[in-house]
Amino acid sequence: MARKMLIDGELDKSGQEEQHYDFDLFVIGAGSGGVRAGRFSAQYGAKVAICELPFHPISSELSGGVGGTCVIRGCVPKKILVYGAAYGPELEDARNYGWEVNERVNFNWKKLLHKKTEEIVRLNGIYKRLLSNAGVKLFEGEGRVIGPNEVEVIQLDGTKISYSAKHILIATGSRAHRPGIPGQELAITSDEALSLEELPKRVVILGGGYIAVEFASIWRGMGATVDLCFRKELPLRGFDDEMRAAVARNLEGRGITMHPCTTLTKFEKTEDGIKVHTDHGEVILADVVLFATGRLPNTKRLNLDAVGVELDKMQAVKVDEYSRTNVPSIWAIGDVTNRMNLTPVALMEGTCFAKTVFGGKPTKPDYLHIPCAVFCIPPLSVVGLSEEQAIEQVNGEVSVYTSTFNPMKNTISGRQEKSVMKLLVEAETDKVLGASMCGPDAPEIMQGIAIALKCGATKEQFDSTVGIHPSAAEEFVTMRSETRRVSSNKPKTNL
């Protein structure tokens, strides 16, 4: 029986008998989004294939691995290193809690690295089993599109095999960007940073985004000296300015040297290390220089131009609300589309794709109230609008509620590091528009707050919720006094 497909609520009636294809769906890229789309499509009865480059912890044009960037060289190994880095300061804090910690505490980088590698190998195997259990055929090799309904797989021995598919899904993610600075070959990206053979003692990081502040926290927590150079006045452009300032204070408080409004101009290899030149005439010596300057969509080798798939100026695949390209049989999800580049978002897009194409239920990804976290130490987590976005988007006044406090744990440890919480409320409707927190456990707390915002919670409902005492989270339901009220007339900052 010919398989029917629902798009925009209408049954596809193109012909009584469909053309025969090797597969109903062929997915290029077995990261989080591609695996989710492939598995769920197979559960709807589709015949599915997926291809992925051979496993390697460091990404290249010819290496990858089932599980993708997040599992192999992104979120998961990075969070493991964050956990490892946090223990150093925690051991210092423990002394005031009665723990007699020896003066000298050694850190074994190679042991942590080995444990990290063991874990990503384990997860790589789990993802393979998920595909196998769902009945998805896995091909190891490089996939490229050679026709609207044809994919070519270049196998490990160089031979090429082509397969036909009714639908092709591009889910190849993104790769680290390397700016063209003289001596740039001396620098590394986050891929290599997760697998360094030796722990560096001196690090210079270029960038002010997620990856930059996270690795700054990791290396500083492990005892390295860290210089963080970024172009704006504050790190984490695009986040709430007040929260960005809180992160910057915490990074400085933990001993990271901040270089705002700074970029790097040249790297030189010397006997003493890498000589790093800034545009302010400074020279910093480093063992490692990390480029944390963003990521680019992985479209270079997909042959999309040949079949007419439109790309944007960043070379990301252009898609409609349902993740469909301008070629009706070709779709794309995840970072390769450069919409909202988060692993859970790619999972959502993969789910929506499967429902739309094979589940008979056209479903658009919903990008409202998506929580996210920056795993610096301590972390920042947000959901909904920043204050700057609220001022720009809300037609009326916005009530701002803030709380800055010393976490209870710090009152005994003596650590001088404030937690900051913030709620943004539409004054006219009392609806909570955004929530932010910088402090311990922020991501764990914000996941629950995100559910409230998704349900359209009001400030009155926050206020009527009983808090858990003693906890930091209870601050979100006890912020009763308005800190300030802002409107769209407030001048925009240039941070």
UniProtKB/TrEMBL annotation:
Q: Identify which cofactors the protein needs according to its UniProt entry.
A: FAD
Please state the Enzyme Commission number of this protein.
1.8.1.7
Task: Output the SUPFAM superfamilies linked to this UniProt entry.
Answer: FAD/NAD(P)-binding domain (SSF51905), FAD/NAD-linked reductases, dimerisation (C-terminal) domain (SSF55424)
Keyword field: Disulfide bond, FAD, Flavoprotein, NAD, NADP, Nucleotide-binding, Oxidoreductase, Redox-active center
Query: Per its UniProt record, what InterPro entries does this chain match?
Result: FAD/NAD-bd_sf, FAD/NAD-binding_dom, FAD/NAD-linked_Rdtase_dimer_sf, GSHR, GSHR/TRXR-like, Pyr_nuc-diS_OxRdtase, Pyr_nucl-diS_OxRdtase_dimer, Pyr_OxRdtase_I_AS
**Positions that bind NAD(+):** 207-214, 294
Q: Provide the binding site for FAD.
A: 79, 143, 172-174, 335
GO MF entries: flavin adenine dinucleotide binding; glutathione-disulfide reductase (NADPH) activity; NADP binding
Which Gene3D superfamilies does this entry report, sorted A to Z?
Answer: 3.30.390.30, FAD/NAD(P)-binding domain (3.50.50.60)
Where does the FAD/NAD(P)-binding domain start and stop, copy by copy? 23-350
Active site: which residues? 469
Q: Does the keyword NAD apply?
A: yes
GO BP of this protein: cell redox homeostasis; cellular response to oxidative stress; glutathione metabolic process
Catalytic activity reads: 2 glutathione + NADP(+) = glutathione disulfide + NADPH + H(+)
User: What remark does the entry make about the cofactor?
Assistant: Binds 1 FAD per subunit.
- This protein's GO CC annotations: cytosol; mitochondrion
- Which cysteines are cross-linked by disulfides? 70-75
Top-rank taxon, per record: Eukaryota
- The chain positions of domain Pyridine nucleotide-disulphide oxidoreductase dimerisation read 370-479
Described function: Catalyzes the reduction of glutathione disulfide (GSSG) to reduced glutathione (GSH).
Q: Which family does it belong to?
A: Belongs to the class-I pyridine nucleotide-disulfide oxidoreductase family.
Q: How does it assemble?
A: Homodimer.
Recorded protein name is Glutathione reductase
Question: From which source organism is this entry?
Answer: Nicotiana sylvestris
